[in-house]
Amino acid sequence: MRRWPLIVLLALGAVVVAGAVVYQVKKPAAAVPMAAAEAAGKSAWDFNLTAIDGQALPMRKFQGEVVLLVNTASFCGFTPQYDGLQAMQTTYAARGFTVIGVPSGNFLDQEYGTNKDISTFCKAKFGIQFPLAERSDVVGGNAIPIYRWAAARLGPENAPQWNFHKYLIGRDGQLIGAWGSKVEPMSPELRGAVEKAISAPVRS
Question: In this structure, which of 29, 43, 82, 124 has its CB flanked by the most CB atoms within 10 Å?
Answer without folding.
Answer: 82
